Amino acid sequence: MSAPIIVAPETRVQLREDGEWLLVELKGAWRITETRPSWPVLLEGRDPVRVKLIWGKLECWDSALLLFVFELRQWCRTKNVYCDLTDLPEALQKLLSQLVVVNETRMAFDRSRNFLTTVGLAAQDVWAKTKEIATFVGECVISAVGLAKNPRKFRWRDCLEEMQRCGAMALPIVGLISLLIGITMAFQFSILMRQFGADIYVADAVGLVMVREMGAMMTAIILAGRTGAAFAATLGNMKAGEEIDALTTLGIRPVDFLVMPRIVALAVMMPLLALYANGLGILGGMAVSLGLLDIPPTAYWVETQTAIDLSDILTGLIKASVFGVLVGLAGCHRGLRAERSAAGVGNATTSAVVMGLLLIIVADALFAVAFNILGW
Amino acid sequence: MNTTQPDAPALDVSGLEAGYDHKVLLKDVSFQVKRGEIFFIIGGSGCGKSTLLRHLVGLRPPTAGTVTFFGENFNTVTADRQRELLQNIGVLYQGGALWSSLNLLENVMLPLEEYTPLGPAERAELASMKLAQVGLSGYDAYYPSEISGGMRKRAGLARALALDPDIVFFDEPSAGLDPLTSRKLDELIVTLRDLLGMTCVVVSHELASIFSIADRVIMLDKEARGIIANGDPRVLVKESKDQRVREFLGRGEDAKVTALQKQPSP
User: Fold this and answer.
1) Is residue B91 less than 8 Å (CB to CB) from chain A?
2) Mean pLDDT of A24-39
3) Beta-strand (E) ranges in B49-116?
4) Which of A245, A246, A251 sits opposite B83 (nearest CB)?
5) CB–CB of B154/B136 below 8 Å?
6) Contact assignment for B97 to A248 by CB distance below 8 Å
């Protein structure tokens, strides 16, 4: 291993005064990896009228020397000092002239905007995005109507594949999370109920919350992260690879071909997954009740049955299906509108998940109000 | 193909304005492509070649002007008619743009499935033939990720040809290909034109292709924001009044000369 050569700056540049000329002799080794001597420091307060660079004994040189000479010349220009570079080799002079061209054509580019412009552009952007989403939803509706009229055109094979991917393959994670949610809720409720000696009502509480709210909600959240992101990434990548354009120029609408099978798959699988989540949540509550409150599973089950009726389950499933459509819409929309680059696909994935979650929560709030008014 | 005007040119562009995001790249672009012609759209990087192509194949609506295929204005006909017109247009994208979830045979079969009443067996047979036409027989069951870039392009061409279109657009067919493969693709284009009478519109800046197969070129320019030359490249390179055109087309000649001169030096 060779030790780095440390050269004191002074040895590389020697200044000699000769009348009104300042002779600058360049020597030694100039490497970009070492610190470069600074021209103003070297001058030490000298005030030359003419500067001449002299090509001394140089071991090697690279961009470090180039930058030094450039700095020197810029200094001469601003101070109106004559600068003689004729002694330098042709290669260096050519490189220098390139540097000058590059530097002189560079213009300061003001990208800052004032407050009003920023607000205006943001407002325009929001309007454009709203229009875009509305257009996309409209396209989906038109496509759905068209496919309902002519079901032979629907991509059943793709739809089944997506069902397998977003439904069956999500069973383990949905199951685990629902079970844990059921367990956690049972613990929390048991603390409250015990104070009143109403232990058995843990079954009612866990059952109702799971069936009406948490089953659908947790499934939707898991699928927003799992499937919504996957949709956005797949479609975004297809867009980057011009695959979407290839569909369009064949007269095949990407919404029919790519979006509908995915949304239908989610809308069908989400209620099924929610039902499964409900079951496992109740199972979790049952386990805690047995261990902590000594409630036998049969009693727990009977109590759950009295608490929940079919309309509770149905409201949960309606919600799940709507959440499925929303997650699918968010994922596909972001994917189809992705920028044609690796970063674009990444952004699309992120915003698909965020938009999916946002839509789920907003829809859930709306459902709460609607079901309250309807008395379901 | 049920065209309304049998004598109309394959493609007639008039007064087209091309651009995106409120940025106009090309203004007042007008040209015609005759049937059976191999027509090149050339120009330096960033002059709007690919954007123009996207306007031509209907991926972007024009902000001004018209694009007419075989006498029918693409942008004013109904959506159904547009679909019918699109059947008659093949596009080979830069990277092939094969659908990655389908194998080569399925890729070529999809347009047939959309537009023809053929049964699965007939579709497969036809698709297999198209793949063989571009020299990919035996690769039916391969997925796009399993084959090379040049093969992907050829498969993309097979797909573009699936419905026997009258006009085929090529987006930089030789980009990213070695000279031999790109030469073979050029030969394929000429063969298709000679055998099937297809009209070919090629976006490219590959001088070798331009000089060997182009019947006619238009050259676009970034500063002029439009067409600065229209004609036979072999004539334009010598006789064009525009220096930019001679320089662009002549670059190949210069490069050849310097390469020859350099060889004998010790």
Assistant:
1) yes
2) 86
3) 64-69, 72-73, 89-92
4) A251
5) yes
6) no
Segment A290-334, tens digit of pLDDT:
999 999 999 999 999 999 999 999 999 999 999 999 999 999 999
Any alpha helices (H) in chain A, and if so which ranges?
Answer: 9-12, 39-43, 63-79, 90-105, 115-149, 156-166, 171-194, 201-209, 215-223, 229-240, 243-249, 254, 260-292, 297-307, 310-336, 342-374
Q: Is B1:B177 a contact under the CB 8 Å cutoff?
A: no
Kindly list the residues from chain B whose CB atom is less than 8 angstroms away from the CB atom of residue A143.
Answer: none
Least confident of A174-183, B127-136, B138-147, B247-256: B247-256
Which amino acid is located at B14 in the chain? Answer: S
Which chain B residues in 98-117 lie under 8 Å from chain A, judged by CB atoms?
98-100, 110-111, 114-115
Nearest to A207 by CA among A311, A314, A300, A322: A300
Q: How close does chain B come to A258, measured CA to CA in Å?
A: 11
Exposure b/e, A79-101, CB count within 10 A at least 16 = b: eebebebeebeeebeebbeebee
**In contact, B66 and B228? CB cutoff 8 Å:** no
Interchain proximity B95–A241, CB inside 8 Å: yes
Maximal C-alpha separation, chain B: 68
Determine the average pLDDT of the residues in A267-284.
Answer: 96
Residues of chain A neighbouring B86 (CB-CB closer than 8 A): 249-251
Whether the per-residue pLDDT at A176 is higher than 60: the answer is: yes
Interchain contact, A246 vs B97, CB within 8 Å? yes
CB A147 within 8 A of CB A154: yes
Of A242, A247, A248, the CB nearest to B95: A242
Residue B88: name the closest of B16, B188, B162 by CA.
B162
What are the φ/ψ torsions at residue A344 (nearest 5 degrees)? -60, -40
B82 contacts in chain A (CB < 8 Å): 251
> Could you tell me the pLDDT band of residue A6, with boundaries at 50, 70 and 90?
low
Contact A249 B94 (CB under 8 A): no
Rounded to a whole number, what is the distance in angstroms from the first to the last CA of chain A? 80
CA neighbours within 13 Å on the CB side: how many for A22? 20
Cα–Cα distances (Å) from A349 to A175, A235, A329, in that order, read: 24, 10, 13
Taking chain B, what is the end-to-end CA distance rounded to the nearest angstrom? 62
Q: Which two tokens stand for residue A94?
A: 């050519």
**Burial degree of A319 (CB within 10 A; 0-12, 13-18, 19+):** buried
Report the chain B residue with the minimal C-alpha distance to residue A158.
Answer: B101
The distance of A235 to chain B (nearest Cα, Å) reads 11
- Residue of B82, B84, B97 with shortest CB distance to A243: B97
Closest-CA distance, B257 to chain A, in angstroms, reads: 25
Shortest CA gap B158–chain A (Å): 13
* B86–A243 C-beta distance less than 8 A: no
Distance, CA of B119 to CA of A95 (rounded, Å): 68
Segment B199-257, tens digit of pLDDT: 999 998 888 888 889 999 999 888 888 888 888 888 888 888 888 888 888 875 554 44
From the list B59, B99, B159, which residue is nearest A248 (CB)?
B59
SS3 of chain B: helix, strand, coil, percent, to 5: 40, 25, 35
* pTM of the model as a whole: 0.78
Q: How does DSSP classify residue B26? A: E
Please answer whether residues B223 and B53 qualify as being in contact, where contact means their C-beta atoms are separated by less than 8 angstroms: no
